[in-house]
Amino acid sequence: MAAHDAAIEVEHLVAHYGSRKILDDVCFTAHQGEIMVIMGGSGSGKSTLLRHLLGLNHPTSGSIRLLGKDITRLDADQMYDLRKNMGVAFQGGALFNSMTVGENVELPLREHTRLDCNTIRIMSRMKLEVVNLSGFEDLMPAELSGGMIKRAALARAIVMDPRLLFFDEPSAGLDPVASAELDELILMLRDAMNMTIVVVTHELESAFKIADRITVLDHGRILMSDRAEAVRQSDHPRIRSLLDRTPRSDSVDPEAYLQRLTREIS
Amino acid sequence: MAEHVPASLVIALGQRTVQSVRETGYLAALFIEALYWLALGRWRRQPVRLSAIVRESMHVGVSAIPIVALASFATGMMLAIQGIYTLRSFGAESQVVMGIALSVTREFAPLITGIFVAGRSGSAIAARIGTMQISQEIDALRVIGINPVRYLVSPLLAAMLLTLPALTVLATVLGLGGGALYCAWGLSLPPEVFFDRSFDVLTTTDLTHGLLKSTVFAVIVTLIGAGNGFNVKAGAEGVGRATTRAVVLGCIGIILADMVFTFLTSR
Exposed, middle or buried: residue B12 (CB in 10 Å: 0-12, 13-18, 19+)? Predict the structure, then answer.
């Protein structure tokens, strides 16, 4: 594919929390209109990677280009413009609890556009219609089920018709049916709106169902970033253990073990 | 082992000091940023909306009217009781009016208002922002392109700066009213004479003194509440701790600021 086709390009990304290195030389590319699934076990750094992609954390080094713009170098105004093209659905939904579902979905339109109230209301209802939540706009987030919260969060994420959509753990905490419905919805969004969608998940079934490409993270490093089929057939031992759900059997390095136990003790 | 004890004390003291300096710096930055968005937000595409200021004013100001009214009325009455009791030994009961008028206007009205608002709203602000922090709502604001300080702190600061002086005026009037009522009963002094004498001793400076204090308290309550909310990290327990901290630090902050302010302006 041509280089200008890339919607997300991450190059040599290194990130720390304090002195702990969380991401180490992460590079991957996602093209316009494809679903990129970032997969990895707990503690693999996938949530941290997502926070960096969203511009919530600043990396130690490396670059993140979203729609051709390096977000590590943008000023606040340019980032503000870019955010209009980004939608994010957080793991727990992160709906504003003091507002109704409808007001939550309307908020980005109220902040970024000068449309009149009725237009905003109609547009937000259209998105609630897309996620099968029409008629729920007057409820408070606390009155919704887990699956409905995720769908409402998705409606808020797509209300500006963004070119990039980020979805954190869509299936976490949902029953299989609700989770499958959400997968269908993600596929539909890509086909209908040509969005580039980044999904962070550890659910294998859902990952392979929706992914065009999969990036596998382990201990902050990228093990593989390739088409879903290639990942499925990979014979890398860590990827296999992730896919076959076998416990990791890393051998213990006695030197490193001793050093971990005795560090900062003199 | 013995020589390690002072060392660890010094370390703990040093860490506390660094922590306090860092927190003060953070609150100062928060204050400047909140003012910045209030002043320039409109031109930086982050307007502070009037509707948000009105909504916050209702929460922190208007709903506090009953409790502040009751507390200041009772304080005025208590001052009258104590004043008459103390001054009776000199046979100078009639001087109580001057004492009540000055102490209510300059000291008790702003202080009582500040402490009640710190207790009511400081904790509510910390709990709300803290809960938003742990449920990723603050992150959600940022990714939508809404600056959290502009959206959450600036309207609150404006509301506090508007309503706390207004509440202080109310508390002054009701505090004097409480004093007048007790003097009418205890000294048979008609309320209109009480108010006439009060306005004879009071100057504009006394009133502005109280109002200036209340604006300082408004800033303290807002910043300590919001700052503790934003710094919540560990779940529900963290929110609880931030709420307690906001009330305790808010109240002590108000009393210390009051002392400094009074020292600087009353000599």
Answer: exposed
ipTM reported for the complex surpasses 0.85: yes
Q: Within an 8 Å CB–CB cutoff, is residue B146 touching chain A?
A: yes
Domain ranges (residues) in chain A: 33-56+84-244
For residue B8, is it within any domain? no
What is the total count of domains within chain B?
Answer: 1
- Nearby residues of A214 by Cβ (< 8 Å), 6 or more positions away: A36, A37, A38, A39, A207, A208, A224, A225, A226, A227, A228, A231
Rounded CA Rg of chain B: 22
Residues of A in contact with B59 (CB under 8 A): none
Structural domain includes residue B10? no
* Cα angle B38-B40-B45, degrees, rounded to a multiple of 5: 100
Question: Could you name the CATH architecture of A33-56+84-244?
Answer: 3-Layer(aba) Sandwich (3.40)
Residue B7 placed within a domain? no
Contacts of A111 in chain B (CB under 8 A): 144-146
Sort out which chain B residues have CB atoms less than 8 A from A92's CB and list them.
Answer: 135-136
For residues A171 and A182, the answer to whether their CB atoms sit within 8 Å is yes
- Asked if B168 contacts A111 with a C-beta cutoff of 8 angstroms, the reply is no
Q: Test A97 with B135 for CB contact under 8 angstroms.
A: yes
How confident is the prediction along chain A (266 residues), in pLDDT tens digits per residue?
A: 444 578 999 999 999 988 888 999 999 999 999 999 999 888 888 989 999 999 999 999 999 999 999 999 999 889 999 999 999 999 989 999 999 999 999 999 998 998 999 999 999 999 999 999 999 999 999 999 988 999 999 999 999 999 999 999 988 888 888 888 889 999 999 999 889 999 998 888 889 999 999 999 988 899 899 998 998 888 888 888 888 877 766 677 888 888 888 877 75
- The answer to whether residues A97 and A144 touch, using CB atoms and an 8 Å cutoff, is no
Nearest chain A residue (CA) to B146: A111
Q: Per the domain annotation, does B16 fall within a domain? A: no
- Rounded to 10 degrees, the C-alpha dihedral B206/B209/B214/B219 comes to 170
Range of the domain at B245: 23-265
Of A86, A88, A111, the CB nearest to B146: A111
